[in-house]
Amino acid sequence: MVEIFKPETTAQVVDAIAWASGEETPVEILGTGTKRGFGRPMGDGNRTIGHTVDLSGLSGISLYEPEELVLSAWAGTPLAEIEAAVAEKGQMLAFEPPGLAGLYGGPGGTLGGMIACNLAGPRRIKAGSARDHILGIEAVTGRGELIKSGGRVVKNVTGYDMSKLLTGSFGTLAALTQITIKVLPSPECVETIVLKGLDEADAVRAMALALNSSHEVSAAAHFAAPLSVGFDGAGEALTAIRVEGFIPSVSARSAALQEQWGAFGAVTTLDADASRSFWAGVRDVTPFTDAEKPLWRLSVTPSQAPAIVAAIGDPTFMDWGGGLIWCSSEAAEADAIRGVLAAHGGGHATLIRASEDARRTAGVFEPQPAPLAALSARVKDSFDPRHILNPGRMYEGV
Amino acid sequence: MKMPDPDADVIARREDILTAMRSIVPGEGVIADATGMAVYESDGLTAYRQLPLIVVLPETVEQVSAVMAYCNDHAVKIVPRGAGTSLSGGALPAADAITLGLGKFNRVLEVDYENRCARVQPGVTNLGITHAVEAEGFYYAPDPSSQIACTIGGNVAENSGGVHSLKYGLTTNNILGIEMVLPDGEILRLGGKHMDAEGYDLLGLMTGSEGLLGVITEVIVRILPKPTTARALMIGFESSEAGGQCVADIIGAGIIPGGMEMMDRPAIKAAEAFVQVGYPLDVEALLLVELDGPSVEVDFLIERVREIAEALGYVSMRISENEEERLQFWAGRKAAFPAIGRLSPDYYCMDGTIPRHKLPEVLARMSKLSDKYELGVANVFHAGDGNLHPLIMYDANKPGELERAEDFGSDILRLCVEVGGVLTGEHGVGVEKRDLMEEVFTEDDLKQQQRVKCAFDPNQLLNPGKVFPTLHRCAELGRMHIQRGQMPFPDIPRF
Questions:
Q1: Domain residues for B370?
Q2: Do residues A396 and A255 both lie within one domain?
Q3: CATH number of the domain that A117 lies in?
Q4: Is residue B248 domain-shared with residue B264, that is, in the same domain?
Q5: How many angstroms separate the CA atoms of A116 and A118, rounded?
Q6: Are both B115 and B215 inside the same structural domain?
Q7: What is the C-alpha to C-alpha distance for residues B305 and B360, in angstroms, rounded to an integer?
Q8: Fewer CB atoms inside 10 Å of the end CB: C or N, chain B?
């Protein structure tokens, strides 16, 4: 019988995992389960998941010092609770963690889940992703040992950066128990500059021009015509950049960027409220929330984006100035999509949403070259020699 | 500092190893005479010296791979080396190890403005990257003080920062990919020109791994458009508390300055005596705040910072009106180390990081330690990110002073850990802080880090004697204590 253990202390997490390790019983490590659809179906060869370790009982903010730009919380703390706490002090998680509830259904997730998946929104290009904001971590390895890495300070090279290694490891190395992250002041003001009717090549050119300027653009996205509808595109392609900061600075930079973009066509702007909802839509991938079709996330060399979009041919939109492409293609296209990327400067294609069968056969994550796969497997073994933590969630045998 | 005993068997095989190295790396790329190797006997932590077994300076990744495969097959240790500017002994040679210098990997391979990145070899200097891209208005953001000399490969190994790291991040936040060679000679690529290399974040793990996991042979760095304007304020306070409060209030107001540095009275005095740029001598703390960005923003923020400092009752304040003045403000800070060098025959530079608000407490207790050890100390502080560089003044020619300086330094680092900080912000653990690691980490923490090392370097041949205080064999680390039995946790809620 599959049981769900819901530990309320770190010691209980240690107990549960040490026991599972002793019994060689694979366990699923879970927050609130909102991103259960992200990753390969679990199981390792003939072994299936025995029990679930639900970390949502390990919840609450344990330290928040706004003037030190630091926050620690238990892994099961709802992300919404953290975002509300920092917003109250005029601060934010600068990497704009997406709410993927729309993609997978269900309510918002936890801090631990977001870190385990290393998510980031449109501000990735300026502020980095989750891994760039993690300062320290406490976790229980597959050996049932509580370890810590990092600390509560930004500058730290004391020991290996295990915090980054565990970020984006999808619970396959250790169960995160406590996480310390960097927070930053929220911008005083935000404005969005919009161009309509550009094709992909011109859009990427326009976004690169803006990103290469000294005007500190904090997001750059492009929607082709059919997908721009929810963003006021009204049947036209839509290209947008965001400027954020102090009011006089935003005014000056926005004016300069509008002049620069004038060369591409008529420029319009979105005010602060419209900007916030626009970029929340980009962040949460709203054009693809209700689609029945599988969803891919491609991380690519930005200048190659137009050629990649053309080669794939399915509905897409671009974020990160072209560096991130969301596309709705069949899971069976996996090899073709990965071939396109390989032929256009490399990158990786992740199958974000698909049926369980499709995720098992297509592979969710980009297959790794043999030496890298072997190294990843050795790293897995060093944390979890008996493969009891989320086995197979990233790669077969890992 | 006890280093591992040299392996007599390896030293006995030196001639064979030398022949093998010469067959891989031709000509001047292999150095075996004591005079030629003397250049490599030490790094920036000059208190420690040791001649290497042989120095090898490869020029291609294939040569690096062949050298490492040979060493792996023949149980020869390797110490990787960039420019040798490490302040923690990270590149300290070993008598039974080859020093593998990457100095000949000194080319910028590609600058890709369209994708805002550059592909460079590891021996390119930090400043060399900026020089390669500045004509187009770009720069490479991390700027450690040694940026004229230190190389990007070493920056990756140490996760170097610099005065701009609060706003622009450390090395780890500014690289997209690397090419590296594993100890068995396997060549790997992590990341590329795209963002967020998928799978385990081995790029993040490699950054700051102090040359213990692999040898970096290429780096893809992000380059940024240069801010159009920079201006600085130089603010003197009557106490470190007031200076620290000013830093907290600036950040509390939502301002993230490009640079924010603080100096204590001994450091101010030494710097002013050296460069004479008009630092106030009647203050306990001098704060330098630099704002960068569009000129409208900089002017606006300068005024806000001025108001914050005024509310705290500053003793003195100057605001730069031109580039010459801004550079003048920084001149004293940048010359702080040599300035101390003028006052004292030797100085020992420490590198702890502390939660910012603990600064007054740490300075007060450090002053007591200074009395106890009868050695002077001056402090420069990356105030934005809490990274503290105490400079302990001593005279190596006086018997016992070096040992006293080292003990003083260890006590300072223990103090940093006690108040919630860490041993090293940017200089690395190396050999210098190796034996203090147990102040920060439990045995389980350190064993797991060493297991990760074993995943990369199962024969433990790369950069021996660094970072870890106790050596364990990989086989021993891999063993598991199995506890079987009935569920031992009746108290865990279950469903």
A1: 344-432
A2: no
A3: 3.30.465.10
A4: yes
A5: 6
A6: yes
A7: 21
A8: C
Q: Where do we find the tokens 């900026």?
A: B130
Same-domain pairing of B139 and B218 = yes
Q: Is A116 on the interface with B (CB under 8 A)?
A: no
This prediction has a pTM of 0.96
pLDDT in tens, chain B (495 residues): 788 899 999 999 999 999 999 999 999 999 999 999 999 999 999 889 999 999 999 999 999 999 999 999 999 999 999 999 999 999 999 999 999 999 999 999 999 999 999 999 999 999 999 999 999 999 999 999 889 999 999 999 999 988 888 899 999 999 999 999 999 999 999 999 999 878 999 999 999 999 999 999 999 999 999 999 999 999 999 999 999 999 999 998 999 999 999 999 999 999 999 999 999 999 999 999 999 999 999 999 999 999 999 999 999 999 999 999 999 999 999 888 889 988 899 999 999 999 988 999 999 999 999 999 999 999 999 998 899 999 999 999 999 999 999 999 999 999 999 999 999 999 999 999 999 999 999 999 999 999 999 999 999 999 999 999 988 999 999 988 766 655 656 677 766
Contact A222/B at CB under 8 A:
no
Which residue in B has a C-alpha nearest to residue A188's C-alpha? B254
> In sequence order, what E strands does A233-368 have?
238-245, 267-270, 295-300, 316-319, 324-327, 347-353
| Element holding B353 (H helix, E strand) | strand B352-353
B58, amino acid identity:
P
The verdict on B272 and B328 lying in the same domain is yes
What is the interface pTM, i.e. ipTM, of the complex?
0.97
**A38: helix, strand or coil:** coil
Give the total number of structural domains in chain A. 3
Among B188, B296, B492, beta carbon nearest to A12:
B492
| A252: contact with B, CB 8 A cutoff | yes
Number of separate domains in chain B: 4
Contact A331, A359 (CB under 8 A): yes
CATH number of the domain residue A267 falls in: 3.30.70.2190
